[in-house]
């Protein structure tokens, strides 16, 4: 699954306009990258270096005061790897709506789902990303 295909690696970049990130947010994002959960590390190994059909993902990206676990700007897709503390979280709902208003879709997956079914999670991400790239 990690080498799903390298087709489409020459895709045109579709990035969001650069924003100035306050230094505390940048520092916090760096800390989050260093202190990733097991599930985040597993998923990052599957997504990094354009391993998922050439889609470029970044991790722990600060945006609008939030830290995004993973984001593919080309597909305008955010992947959040959540533990039980995020179950039915009103803060997450507010965050998701805010980012949706910016044209970004948030796909939430559970830690244990990543650890137990990484290939299935990657297929779900790929399906959503392909659909969103096609829409553009």
Summarize the structure.
Helices cover 43% and strands 18% of the residues. β3, α3 (90-101) and β4 (105-110) form a beta-alpha-beta unit.
Distance between termini? 25 Å
Strand order, sheet with most strands: 1-2-3-4
Q: Could you state the order of secondary-structure elements as H and E?
A: HHEEEHEHH
- Quaternary status: single chain
What name does the CATH topology carry?
Answer: Endonuclease, Chain A
Bin the strand percentage. 15-25%
CATH architecture: 3-Layer(aba) Sandwich
The structure class reads: alpha+beta
Question: What share of residues is helical?
Answer: 40-55%
Uncertain stretches of 5 or more adjacent residues: 1-13
Annotated CATH homologous superfamily: VSR Endonuclease
CATH class category: Alpha Beta
Structure description:
This protein has 136 residues and is α+β, with helices and mostly antiparallel strands. It contains 5 helices and 4 strands, in the order ααβββαβαα. A 4-stranded mixed beta sheet has the order 1-2-3-4, sandwiched between helices. The longest helix has 18 residues. The radius of gyration is 14 Å and the shape is globular. The two termini are 25 Å apart.
